[in-house]
Amino acid sequence: MKAWQNPRFTPAISGAALKLGRMMSGTLKNAAIEVGCRLDLTLTG
Questions:
Q1: How far apart (Å, rounded) are the C-alpha atoms in residues 10 and 17?
Q2: Is this structure's pTM higher than 0.85?
Q3: Under 8 Å CB-to-CB from 25, ≥6 apart: which residues?
Q4: How far apart are CA 43 and CA 45, in angstroms?
């Protein structure tokens, strides 16, 4: 029986995946906002 097929491990794995996904999307959002701000400054400044 593999670890990810064990029902006891599944919540931990999916929880970690969710956390990682949130972190990644948060980082991407921040990066996009930062790039957008820099573009605004470049275009307007």
A1: 10
A2: no
A3: none
A4: 6
Please answer whether residues 16 and 7 qualify as being in contact, where contact means their C-beta atoms are separated by less than 8 angstroms.
no
E-assigned strands of 1-45? none
SS3 44: helix
For the stretch 11-31, pLDDT in tens is 888 888 889 999 999 999 999
Q: How far, in whole angstroms, is CA 8 from its chain's centroid?
A: 25
* Pair 3, 9: CB distance under 8 Å: yes
CA 20 to chain centre: 5
As given in the structure block, the two tokens for residue 30 are 């921040």
- Residue 21 is encoded by which pair of tokens? 């996904």
